[in-house]
User: What shape does this take?
Amino acid sequence: MTAWRSGDVTELMNRFGITNITARILWSRGFRTSEQVASYLYGDERIAWPRLSGTDEFVRVMREALTEGGRFRVFGDYDVDGVTGTYLMITALRMLGADADYRIPDRVADGYGLSDEMVRQAKADGVRTIVTVDNGIAAVSQCALAKELGMRVVVTDHHDPQEHLPETDCTVDPKLADGSERYDNVCGAVVAGLLANALLATERMDGFCDSMTEILALATLCDVMELNGIARDIVRKGMTKPVREWNAGLRALFEANGMQEPVRAYAFGFVLGPCINALGRLETADPGVELLLTHDADLRREYAERMVKVNRRRREQSDFYTKEAIRLADEQVARNTDEPVLVLYLPGCHESIAGIVCGKVREAWNRPTFLLTDAAGTEGMLKGSGRSTESFSMIDALNAHSDLFVKYGGHPMAAGLTIERDRLEEMRQRMAEEFRLQNASLRRGRRIDLEVPFSQLSHAVIEEIAMMGPFGKGNSEPLFALRNVTVTGIRRVGSEGQFLSLRLRDEQGTELKGMLFDDAAGFLTEFREKFGDDETDNTMYGRGTSRMTILYTARENVFQDRVSIEVEVKGYRF
Assistant: This one.
C-alpha cells in the first residue's frame, strides 16, 4: 500500500466531491492532478482516435488497389481479436465497393497465421490484394511468396516483430513505431478499425470506429490489453453503449446467453468472447465472422445458439483436461520444487484447448507454463501453448532459443509453438535457465490499495469504484485488506456446492456477506485443520467465532429490488 498525504487527499475530495477512500486510492495510483483525475473518472465525451504510424502509406496503397480493382482477401485469425478484426476490415472494404472476401485458418489443419497453401489458393482464386489482420508480422516466407506470385500484400498486426520483417507493399504494426507513435495496448482489431476509419474518411464516410465501439471493446478485453489510455477509453465507451445499438449479431449472441443489461467487462471477456473463441478451437471460426456480417435474423439466431452449444462442449473438455494438467504439474513440482517453468506434455488433450488449460495451470501454480500435446497428423511433433507471469517474457524466451522450435509466435504473456517430441526435455532445461537469465521471480504480486473496515464501505464508495472501471489488466479493481474478521457463518452455494457464501463481521460489528469463488474445498479443509471440527460445525450453523485476515473487493448486490453491499474474498490467512 502506497503512503498518502492528508492534504492532497482532502484536496481531491473537495474538488471532485468524492469519498476519502476513493481519493486515497486515486492518489496512491498516481492520479494526483485535477486533469489526471477528471480524465480517469469521467473521460472525454468522444474518443480521440489515434492515427497509427504507417496509416498514410496504408491509405495510399489501399486506394491504389481499389482504383485498380480486383479481388481483396482478408486473412484473419481464429480468436476473438482476429474474428472481429476480419469483420471490421471486410465491412470497410465492402462499404467502398470492393470485391472482398476473407479466410480464417483452421487451427488444426492450417495452424496460426498465413500459410503457403493459403497464399497459393488466393492466387488461384484471382485475388490481387492480400490484407492480413491480427497476424502477418512473422509471415516472412509467405509474404515473399505472395509478392513472387504478383499479389499486393498489406500486413496489419499488433504482435511483436521478430528479427526479420516481411516484404510487403505496406506494413502497419504499432510496435514498429517509436515514442508517442508506439502503442503497446491496441489489439489487432483496433489496428484494423483505426486503419479502416482512416481509409473510409477519404471518401467522407466518417465515424466508423465510433459506430463499432462494442466490437472494439470485445476484442480489447478478450486479447487482454492493458486498460489504460486508448484501450480503456474504448472499453468504457463500448460497455456503456446500449445493447439495442450493438451489431445485430453480437446482440443475438448476448440474447442467446440469456444476458441482461447493464453490461460489465466480465460479460465481454468471460461470456461473449469464449463463445466466439470456442468455434475457432473446436470447429472453424467462420461462423463468428458471419454472425457479425449477416443481415438475416434467422441466421444470426442459428449462429448464436450454435456458438453457445460449442462453448459448453469446450468448457466440459477444458475442465477435464485442466484436472489432468494440474495433476501433472503437482507431480513435476514434487520432483523438483525449484523448477521455475512448467513444461507439461498432455497426450489426448485437443491442441485447440491447450491455451485454456495452460492458463489454468499457470493460475494454480503462479509459474510460467507450457502445455504441449500431440500435433494432429504429424508423427513425432508436439503443438501447444504457453502462458506466463508478469516477470517472465515468454516471447523473449522463445526468441532466445528459436533453434528448439519448428514454429512459434506470441506475446510476453502468451505463446503458441510446435516442437519435436524428443526435444521436450531439452526445452524444459533451457526454459529453466532462461528464467534465471531474465531474473524472473515466482513471487505473486498483489497490489493492496487500502485497509478498509466494512463499516467504512458505503453505496457512494461502491458507485465511485464503478467509475474507476472498466477493470482488467493494467487497471485492477481496488483491493482492500482487513484484519481480525470474524467468520460467523459458512454455506456452500453453486450448482455443485463449488462456492462459499460467508458471513463476515469486522471489529466495529458491521456484518456483510462475502463470496469465495476460488478453491472452496481447500478453504474448508484449512479451516477445519486450523480451528477443529466443533468450531467448523458451529460456523456452518452460523455460530462461528474464528478470525482471519482477508483481501477483498466490494460491490453492490441486487436481489428482489433490494440493494446491499457484499464483498468477494480474494485471499485469506487464518
Summary: The first strand starts at residue 71 and ends at 75.
